[in-house]
Here is the input.
Amino acid sequence: MARQLRFTGTDSKIDGCPALHTDEGTGEIVVQGTPITDPADLAQLQHFGPDEAAVVVPRELLVNDFQAFLATGSSPCDPDEPWFVNIRAQVDAGKTVGRVRIADRPPTTEQLFLLDYARHNAASGEDIRYLWREDAAGLPAEDFWIFDSRIVALLHFDDEDTMLDIELITEPAEVVRYCVARDAAMHHAVPYDGFAAQVAAAE
Here is the structure.
């Protein structure tokens, strides 16, 4: 009989798709990650059975950054995470990486966590900006990335905000529509540090 697995978390800040799932029937946790296959690595594992598999996941997937933020008011960060290493390399190559986030007024706890974490993204070279939800009324209610103004990656989520799939759009007229939305959002949005100051002043 197949397990009834419920997605419970991932670390979207880095490359790849490490994730956690909970077995609804047993309460067991299923860890999804990159398998270890090198015999020299496997030989170092303690109590490793012949029918077992070992996977590698980021420490942050198990030591939750969000829980640390709730406890201390500050989110931890490893600047050597693959995501940050890649962003620094892209920026050093002359590329621009940026995003606009929408926040409620007042921001939710989860939005405050992302706002605090934005300082780590910005330190790596990302241009992180924010819009209040009421100021984003004219923008499409879609979550997407644009690559080189030629390819749109449209993210699809279910009602519980679990990402279902990514739709790649290359049709020129559609790409232009998303580029117009991006440019409008970037123009009206506030850099993360200025937005953080607004939030702090309202507390």
The chain has a mean pLDDT of 87.
